[in-house]
Amino acid sequence: MNCGEIAKKPAVAITPDKTIEEAAALMAQHRVGLLVIVDRENPKKPIGVVSERDIIRSIAQKIPPTATVDKVGTMHNFVYVYDHDPITAAAKKMRQHNVRHVVVVDKEGNLYGVISIRDLIGEKQVLEILARDWVPTQE
Amino acid sequence: MNCGEIAKKPAVAITPDKTIEEAAALMAQHRVGLLVIVDRENPKKPIGVVSERDIIRSIAQKIPPTATVDKVGTMHNFVYVYDHDPITAAAKKMRQHNVRHVVVVDKEGNLYGVISIRDLIGEKQVLEILARDWVPTQE
User: Fold this and answer.
1) pLDDT tens-digit profile of A24-43?
2) How many CB atoms neighbour CB A133 within 10 A?
3) Could you tell me the CA-to-CA distances from A134 to A138, B51, B79, B95, B119 in Å, in that order?
4) How close is the nearest chain A Cα to the Cα of B122, in Å?
5) Model's pTM, two decimal places?
6) Which of these, A49, A58, B57, B95, could form a disulfide with A78 (CB 3.0-4.6 Å)?
7) For the domain A3-133, what is the CATH superfamily, name and number?
8) Does B95 lie at the interface with A, CB-CB under 8 angstroms?
9) Residue B129 and residue A124: Cα distance in Å, rounded?
10) Gene3D superfamilies per the record (chains A, B) (predicted)?
11) How far apart are the CA of B128 and the nearest CA of chain A, in angstroms?
């Protein structure tokens, strides 16, 4: 089973000029914990991510909710996998980077979807694969 | 393996009179996605929870960050397990209630800890148990 197969739902995308408040509204509406920040000129091109955690941190730092998402998200070096990677790659990257989502891209680097940690415990088959092919993060 | 064994780290608690901003700061500081709201008179007694998602929703609804956490958290009917419950109970409740944390209480109902969804994919042994004892949510 590969990452493309498990990332069934389309990613929720946002452009970097949108505000924290708008990001929060999108997360609440779509019930997702991560938005993919995409290029304004090319909505297929992921250029960053903004997570619930990023927004929580912005509140803790008293950054106004009218600030733009590119100020609080992770730009450029976000965590991703390829659609043809095995699902264990997604689980491993989540552990390694201590994140709950990975962006899935196709071989051209275009946005394919998002895998959340929740997707990994939702199905018996997925759990079986993860248990069988489990590798420690410290290697 | 039971819920008490997997909930190793102490829960991060907050009292209901604290603000959303203070809750966000605690979450960011302790790197957790859920705070347990405890009774002001009895810090062992959980009376609710406030999650990252609750805070995101409050921003989307333009609730000021100076509002108290009891206005945005889940009071009273939060999702919990007992420390002696098998870990599959925690996984099942997360799927059933669509949450990423469960509060762990002891048989007196005192706060024991919190299990996050991340704790469930962190160890090979845990994954093996979850895969073996997996039961569909719709039963």
Assistant:
1) 999 999 999 999 999 999 99
2) 15
3) 12, 29, 29, 22, 14
4) 7
5) 0.87
6) A49
7) CBS-domain (3.10.580.10)
8) yes
9) 11
10) CBS-domain
11) 5
